[in-house]
Amino acid sequence: MNTTATNPSANKDLSERALGALLLAPAALLLAVIVVYPIATLFWTSLTSVDPNNPQAGAAFVGFDNYLRAFDDDRFWHSTWNTILYIVVTVPGALIVGLGLALLANQPFRVKWPVRLGLLLPWALPLVFAGLIFRWFFEYNTGVVNNWLVAAGIEPMQWLSTPTLAHWAISLTIIWKASSFMALMLLAGLQTIPKSLYEAAEVDGASKWQQFREITLPMLRPAIFVALIFRTITAVQTFDIPYAMTGGGPGDSTETLAMYIHKTTLDFLDFGYGSALAALMFVISMVATAGYLRYTRRSTSRSGED
Amino acid sequence: MKSWKILTAAALAAAFAANSWAQQTTLRIFTGGQQRPDVMRKIADEYQKRNPAVKVDVEVGGATSEAQQQYLSTVLSSKDSVLDLVLIDVIRPAQWAAQGWAEPLDAYLGADKAKVLPTYLKAYADANQVGGKLIALPYFADSQFMYYRKDLLEKYKRPVPRTWDEMMETAKIVMEGEKNPQLQGFSTAGAPIEGTVCTYLVPLWGMGSDLTKDGKLNLDTPQARQPFQLYGRMKQAGVLPRNIAEIPTDRIRIDMQAGNLLFAMSWGYVWNRLENDADSKVKGKIGVATLPHDQGGKSATCIGGWQVAVSAYSKNKPEAVKFARYLSSPEVSKMQAILASHLPVFPSVYKDPEVLKANPWFAEALPVVEGAKSRPVSAQYPMVSDIIRSNMNAYLAGTKTTDVALNDMKSRLKTVYR
Q1: Residues in chain B whose Cβ is within 8 Å of chain A
Q2: ipTM of the modeled complex
Q3: Is the whole-model pTM more than 0.90?
Q4: What's the number of CA atoms in the CB half-sphere (13 Å) around residue A237?
Q5: What tens digit of pLDDT does each residue of A246-278 get?
Q6: CATH number, domain at B393?
Q7: Strands B85-89, B25-32: parallel, antiparallel or unpaired by DSSP?
Q8: In this complex, is the C-beta atom of A92 within 8 Å of any C-beta atom belonging to chain B?
Q9: Does A155 touch chain B if contact means CB atoms closer than 8 Å?
Q10: Could you check whether the bond before residue A250 is cis, i.e. omega within 30 degrees of 0?
């Protein structure tokens, strides 16, 4: 009796599950076509190599040769190191500037749109445009930065052809471009913090700084982590801004890994090696973000224990 | 009966429509933004007038040779048939032949090939044949010249310099006399771009040496250091702009046009812009000469210019070849010479009175173009170019010494020239 009673409901469960799968199928198929297929192709290509002097002979399977070649390639390490430099400078840089902007935008201004527009504009600007605009700013003869220096009685500097200065100029541009997106995400986080917490703190006599440290920062932590993960992943892929500002120069001293991949595939047409480098960049991305994910998981489980 | 008639009429109409559809061919040609797409449009309009069945779309791409090739690599690696014809840089035929991107033209030209090829400047007939196959047809010729300020040389009573040392000396005298902090002595491409390859090669060739010898790398010579030392001396003398490592090709033209440059090493297109652009401050003040050389060397220059190739993936190859042959005709060479100061690919056109009226310096340009040398011919040219230009750029920026730049160049070029 029992079994016959449960059977219809099991059938219903099954049909509901089937319906669910059916409804998910288009999305899954779409993902397979636009995500799984290219990734699989990239990985397969990374295991092949084409003779550059006779490309029409086609690709030959070479196993992990392309990966081994990368470990021996100074330029791979150098461009990876440059990428890490951009991550180390621009991720905290954009976080600090972005947090400042978000706090500013969260103030009860009477007219809100100028601040919000100021936040949206750099974010809406295409990356290459930002790179070109800042290249003009840092240009030696006609750039506004050197104009300021001259007005202040300082010798003009070769911002884009001195490696250290070029790194700073590029990092500054990336921070300018990325901090507005940071600010937008943090602003969303700020607006979820209940006002009552601040009122209670006020009653208890907490200073503004104490309120910021004890309420704003902890409550904002999930938003900060999401913002950091996004920024870190895009920092690993840094391409447009250095490409537009220096083209990797002088020499290849500002070249990022993404630029080297672009050059290897589209200039040198070495798709096998380029794909291997791209796969390695994916690994770097995973390593860089895995740290955050572990930290967030730990911090949320701990707050659950409390 | 009636329905049968209607059916026949409909079939006839459909056949007629299909026929006229087939007769109208649309050809799409790709050109870079620097190769005067406006002039290409005028030429295409003329062709359309004479061939009403053909419509030509001009697609305009990136300003630099590398940016164009990056786009073309994407289109052609995916075997896309969207482009029928492509303007390619003179450095590309070897790579295009190796990749199979260009439709070999031999079969289309047939017996004409032997008749037509000798009418071109020899260097261009050679540059477009790879392994016995005709890869593209010459569209316009180019090489580097020395542009100079005629008015300033006259003011300081200095002759047109024949050697680099004379040029530096003159530049110093004029710069001191003019007291214009904006005025630069000499400029050439120094940014990490294709043009910077010639910045290295021209002084190397001037000393009678070359990058390779019998297919082997040839950089263990004293002459291989010469280009670095030459620009080093110019830098020390304050003749080169301090931001030389940031200067791309067209920046030289802009500086010259603004009246801020005394000597420049640049390509043929500059003349037309300096003489005709509304904002040019140097109209009528510019002279063109062969490039200076080192004491004991002789003047050398890089061959440039653009070729028209038919895409191997085009669906209208016979029509495309016909248009390519028109683009590579003496008539179009003349049109380009007058409209854009593009150097003709036929020696005969240099003597045309109308051409000479628009470009008086073309008379002296012919021997220069005839003596211009090719950059290394290789299926891996983009790699070769990247190695040379990034090291030259690093040297000009002051981040590498002669020894480091030359050694890096050698060790990386060894992977190409084994």
Answers
A1: 66, 69-70, 73-74, 77, 95, 98-100, 182, 191-193, 241-246, 379-380, 382-383, 386, 390-391, 393-394, 396-400
A2: 0.84
A3: no
A4: 13
A5: 999 898 999 999 999 999 999 999 999 999 999
A6: 3.40.190.10
A7: parallel
A8: no
A9: no
A10: yes
